[in-house]
Design goal:
Layout (H helix, E strand, L loop, with lengths): L10 H12 L3 H14 L1 H4 L9 H13 L2 H22 L6 H7 L19 H8 L4 H13 L3 H5 L6 E2 L4 E4 L8 E4 L2 H11 L14 H10 L7 H14 L4 H8 L8 H6 L4 H16 L1
Antiparallel strand pairs: 1-2, 2-3
Helix pairs in contact: 1-2, 1-5, 2-5, 8-10, 8-12
Length: 288
């Protein structure tokens, strides 16, 4: 028998429980709350058992048919994850309406990855524009290209994350909720030394920089159209062209292997020294 409805968490509370249990980043939690508050407002403060009602299923159907593919995919993921959580923790058996809709062919196609705007042929023009920017913006963009870091990972680097003597750069918080580390290769050492000079241990290297604005600054200076994620994709593409193995590229980019890849999930472990030479080769190729 299911627990009494009064004892069950609301959808809002279940989201908070789920986020704490899964160590969801504050920025992601705020985004999830915004989606539920905006698009599932009538259920946000109701006990999760209300999500079993046909009215919620009808609402999910309308949501799936009227919103964009990316938003629907995000909403589907949030609702599905919370229902799996309350099923495991609170003993509720509530099937996500989105699963039923998908089985009936009533869900839109999954959103497609955005096409990359910047290619290797555009790098000389890109570098020319970037090198004309103020030092902070220039160093940030070069570092993102040469390391493949995500925009927030690069923007949030603190002085204490940079071990110049040991030659290691640490990213404490990542999309995968696991720390990531990279060797400080010669092509990026100059950038990090310049940015670390005179900083207190808790100071950010790129304090005050707007990651969302810096691409526009570069484009106004003459850079071809690009996104910050293009730089990450470009590093991966050049690495593949150079014949750098998947395991090393995943380690550079901080990507986890697929769940079924037992070899690379549980046996293969690469440290900073293992990727230093391939990463240096990649960086030299990008800057030629």
């Amino acid at each position: 028998m299911a627990p009494a409805q009064a004892q069950l968490p609301t959808l809002r509370e279940a989201l908070a429980e789920y986020a704490k249990a899964k160590k969801v980043k504050a920025s992601s939690l705020a985004r999830y709350e915004s989606v539920l508050r905006t698009h599932f407002a009538d259920w946000f403060d109701k006990p999760v058992l209300a999500l079993k009602d046909s009215a919620f299923g009808n609402h999910c159907h309308k949501f799936a048919q009227s919103k964009g593919a990316a938003l629907v995919d995000l909403g589907r993921g949030i609702v599905g994850s919370i229902l799996k959580y309350v099923g495991a923790v609170h003993g509720l058996d509530i099937r996500s309406p989105f699963v039923k809709l998908g089985a009936a062919g009533l869900m839109p196609d999954r959103p497609q990855p955005r096409a990359r705007k910047l290619n290797e042929s555009g790098l000389p023009e890109w570098f020319k524009a970037v090198d004309s920017l103020p030092a902070v913006q220039r160093d940030y963009l070069r570092l993102i290209l040469l390391t493949g870091l995500r925009k927030n990972e690069g923007g949030d680097i603190k002085r204490k994350d940079v071990d110049l003597a040991g030659g290691v750069l640490v990213i404490p918080e990542t999309k995968g909720n696991k720390p990531h580390s990279l060797p400080i290769t010669e092509p990026v050492r100059e950038i990090l030394e310049r940015r670390c000079d005179g900083l207190e241990v808790d100071a950010r290297l790129f304090d005050g920089l707007s990651a969302d604005h810096v691409t526009e600054m570069a484009k106004r200076a003459g850079a071809p159209a690009f996104t910050l994620h293009d730089l990450r994709k470009l590093l991966a593409s050049v690495g593949a062209r150079l014949g750098i193995g998947d395991a090393i590229l995943r380690r550079i980019l901080g990507h986890a292997p697929k769940r079924g890849d037992v070899l690379h999930r549980h046996y293969v472990s690469l440290c900073e020294a293992d990727i230093a030479d391939p990463l240096t080769q990649l960086q030299i190729t990008l800057t030629m």
